[in-house]
Design brief:
By secondary structure, the chain is an all-alpha fold. Among the domains are: about 90 residues, Serine Threonine Protein Phosphatase 5, Tetratricopeptide repeat, CATH 1.25.40.10; about 100 residues, no CATH class. Helix 1 packs parallel to helix 3, helix 12 packs antiparallel against helix 13 and helix 14 packs antiparallel against helix 16. The protein is rod-shaped. The model has no long low-confidence stretch (mean pLDDT about 85).
């Protein structure tokens, strides 16, 4: 009986102490967990801090184009923060700076798999493909970059810059129709900044879309009326479109704004010659028209004589038909010379057109045979082009 009583007392004591023991064990477990969590947090914070420190160092080296140092910095940062997206992206850019594009591509394609909508990743992949002449890939990544996600504050700027880079790429591979399509899309979303308008206008010139180039240059002038580059651009585009009255006005303004602009000065001289030597202008009197035809005929005669004795023609002596054709044209010019007079031109209006057609034929023939025309001969060629089909 005494033994049973002792057992019951021990059991009651144990039952009384058990909650206390469990509570103490629980508190110890919680404290241990908090200690471990704290230590783990401190460890990860230190790792993150070290990673950030090396990353910041890498950014400075990357900006200074110390690419080898930047690669080392970013790789060290990744030891502390493995698979950190921004670290890998900047490491790829540093590798590109070292021309180690295969290594960079491995990082970039992995990043693309994680975030296919990342603008910078797509842009770098496009550049690598472009350098490797992988046109289809380059186009796909460039278009991805244009419509991808960029930082909100820079989104429009980055998309515009990327499209400009795409246009340059297309022009470099002579894909003018595609470049023009991209330019049209770009022009529709430009700001009022004259520098942007001029840049796009210059690209339209490269694809020989002078009509749109003219429009873009004029938009630039709407914001900056005395901009020398825009004035010269309007003049040049109007010249290419054979709108010589418009070309003269803007080229005069361009030369006045920038006397060092020799290209505009040369175009202006040619434009003035075209306007002076064109006998088909509506406002001309009969006397003026007759005088111009006689002058143009004489110019063509001088051109064919100088062409017949040019060294270039002698170098093409193997083309036996050339001297014969020139001789025939010169003989015809000598035959027509007595008729091309003020009296005959007044009496026979059809002679004006026949004479000018012959002048144009001589200028085309000598241009092909003896090299590019200049001065008054170039002006006559432009006049011929202006009235083709009329």
């Amino acid at each position: 009986m005494a033994a049973d009583k002792n057992i019951r007392q021990d059991l009651r004591l144990y039952l009384t102490q058990e909650p206390v023991i469990l509570a103490l064990l629980s508190i110890l477990a919680v404290l241990f967990f908090l200690a471990v969590s704290g230590l783990s947090h401190i460890y990860h914070s230190q790792q993150e801090s070290l990673g950030n420190r090396w990353f910041d160092r890498g950014i400075l080296d990357l900006k200074a184009q110390r690419f080898q140092n930047a690669v080392s910095d970013f790789r060290t940062a990744l030891l502390y923060s493995r698979d950190e997206y921004s670290y890998e992206l900047n490491l790829a850019e540093a590798l590109i700076g070292l021309k180690r594009t295969d290594e960079a591509y491995a990082y970039l394609i992995n990043l693309w798999d994680q975030e296919p909508e990342n603008g910078l990743v797509n842009l770098e992949l496009a550049r690598i493909a472009a350098n490797k002449k992988e046109t289809d890939k380059a186009l796909r990544y460039y278009h991805n970059a244009i419509y991808a996600t960029w930082p909100a504050s820079d989104e429009e700027v980055e998309r515009r810059t990327t499209r400009l880079e795409l246009i340059d790429f297309l022009l470099n591979i002579d894909a003018r129709p595609q470049a023009e399509s991209e330019l049209i899309a770009l022009a529709a979303n430009l700001s009022d900044d004259p520098a942007q308008q001029i840049r796009v206008a210059e690209l339209f010139v490269r694809v020989k879309d002078y009509e749109r180039a003219l429009a873009q240059y004029r938009l630039a002038l709407a914001s900056d009326r005395q901009n020398p580059t825009a004035l010269a651009g309007v003049g040049m585009a109007a010249f290419e479109l054979s709108r010589y009255d418009v070309a003269r006005r803007y080229l005069e303004a361009a030369v006045a704004a920038n006397p060092a602009d020799t290209h505009s000065a040369d175009l202006l001289k040619t434009t003035e010659l075209v306007l002076r030597l064109d006998p088909f202008q509506r406002q001309l009197s009969m006397a003026e028209r007759t005088r111009i035809v006689i002058e143009d005929f004489a110019t063509a005669g001088d051109r064919i004589k100088s062409c017949s004795t040019s060294p270039k023609l002698a170098g093409n002596a193997s083309k036996s038909n050339l001297p014969t054709a020139l001789d025939a044209s010169q003989a015809k010019w000598e035959e027509m010379k007595p008729q091309v007079s003020e009296r005959e031109l007044r009496r026979n209006p059809d002679l004006v057109e026949n004479t000018m057609n012959f002048v144009f034929d001589i200028e085309r023939q000598t241009n092909n045979t003896c090299g590019p025309a200049s001065g008054t001969d170039l002006a006559l060629l432009l006049i011929a082009k202006l009235h083709e089909g009329n």
